[in-house]
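Could you help me review a protein record that somebody else here produced? My question to you is simply how this chain folds and whether the tokens agree. Thanks in advance; the entry in question is below:
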Amino acid sequence: MKQYLILLSIILSLLVNFGAIAKDYDRKAYGGWKDFDRDCQNQRHELLISLSTMPVTFTNAKQCTVKQGKWISPYTNGVICSAKEIDIDHILPVSLSWYYGAKYWTKQERIEFYNDPINIVPVEKRLNRQKGAKDITEWLPPKNQCGYIARFMRVIKKYNLKPPEKKMRQFEKLVHGCRKSN
């Protein structure tokens, strides 16, 4: 019985500690979408404009917010025509970046990460929400998986992020699998 109580105490302690770690993540620390060139179009809309395969239309004459265009989802190769049907996915989830080292960055470094075109893609809302904060060992898109894995790893390298060693070994195994299949 004593061993059971000790084990229960350890488990409860770990749960409390994990909760304390999880509570320190704050998405607001990344500053959200920025309008770097001050033309009223934030990075989300700049990305939609640059990746549309046809001229976009806007919600009003100020041309700040994209309404329609034609985007090819890198996760399905499907065509999306309404900006309302799109989420901008962070290939390496924002919350993971926090635990991989971004919590030690400056606010400006987090803003850069959040808005970096290397790490963001327009995709179907349902897939972005299905993915959530999962890494490449937990979720891969239906199509173009090796390209997705490569971009995930590129972001880790670019931002000198430090996933746990066990996770890095799993990531590298996926990369190796892609190399073998090519």
